[in-house]
């Protein structure tokens, strides 16, 4: 009866946890890392063919994105989720595979000229097609038996259509334990979906901490706030560009635009066009438009009963083809452009930024979390220039943010949720930035009177005895920060405490070298090979010599 923490430990993405109960290996989420990568994660310590089940909390790629990779490498067991999660995974995983296949084609075309080894995508569309038949779905508050001695129950997490907390009841012999995974906990009073439901009591609680150090501002009048932004931008003759996650945030934004249009709140721009320029967002919006009654809140249900689609309206244009996408910026009429990805790291949004960032009459509006180091994070940090497609683009557009659009619970709601679980033994904190996980663990420990820890990747706990049976080896990944003029590195607090000043300076130089490498993507192969040879000379000079043990 053990739990092994693998991903989203002291990091915000890549959720993956292994449960071992009665000889069965069960993964809770199997996510892909996105944005800043702070610590090295261990590999899943069980070969895919020997994993017996996967249980998903919701469909976001940082919780599901490596499922097809698992299948490509031998996994054939069931994948448990809600029905909405299954439908969203179908489109999101296909989109992820398409992105990886496209990148592989691009890399291999470029690499062939340099005689590089073939780049193989993590998985393909064919792997996704093999994954989807493995899904087994259940509704909220329904007990599902995975194996003898293992049952699960979903509770509405209020984060995304179909998102769930997952309550495990596990037994080995005479020992019984309950273990509650928060998944991603939603914000309250959001449109379309219900607020998070009250959690059940559990012995152990695994709680996310994405916003574990933040307090959302008082809920604004979204319609009024958006009306002012739209009116100002259109009056200037500019475009309002909204980087938005294709699933969830896009549909929420459309919900408010529908109200603004229905009530005629924008003056002088009758019939202003709204473009959803993301094939994935278009497919997701279609799913939100179907009979997902189990997941909607009362307001959305009432609209559906009246025959009103809550996320569509006249003058809404959806673009699928590349030609349609490119035509958007050729049209001089002021407009709203909603496109993915939400952090501006990939997708069509980068093209729209290239065409609109340098225009002072335009507005870039962020309505979601921006991970440090991403293009979105840099823009919010006040960058004067950003590089897109190898070209430096001046930032002249107005950069705005609406924090309260967040689909994540903030620190007070997270803490209150944990207290409601009345944890009987221990709390584990994951899915948060490095310092936040430790801070939030201390906070919930004080609030509940129960021990709380923020495990690192590779940490193993015995759930029968509440003992730590394997400590993690903490391996930081050196990355550049988003702050202009800084070449700081990710801080491993123990390293900073015990390393000599010379070693700390050497590590900072290593961070600067990493930053230089990251900024060298547009260099010629000749320049890159010269840099590589010089680095290899340093490694040969100071690395372990032949015949030594490297100590």
Description:
It is a single chain. By secondary structure, the protein is of the alpha/beta class. It folds into 3 domains: 2-215 and 407-470, Metallo-beta-lactamase, Chain A (4-Layer Sandwich), CATH 3.60.15; 222-404, Rossmann fold (3-Layer(aba) Sandwich); 493-541. The chain contains 16 helices and 23 strands. The protein has helices spanning 61-64, 67-72, 83-113, 125-131, 222-235, 249-262, 279-288, 298-305, 322-328, 349-356, 375-380, 411-420, 434-448, 493-498, 501-518, 525-542; strands spanning 2-7, 16-21, 24-30, 53-55, 79-81, 135-137, 143-147, 150-156, 164-172, 175-181, 204-208, 240-243, 274-277, 316-319, 336-339, 363-366, 385-388, 391-394, 398-401, 426-430, 452-453, 460-462, 467-470. It has an 8-stranded mixed β-sheet. Strand 22 and strand 23 (467-470) form a beta hairpin. Helix 3 (83-113) packs antiparallel against helix 4 (125-131) and helix 3 (83-113) packs antiparallel against helix 7 (279-288). The longest helix has 31 residues, at 83-113. The two termini are 37 Å apart. The model is unreliable at 479-499 and 544-551 (pLDDT under 50).
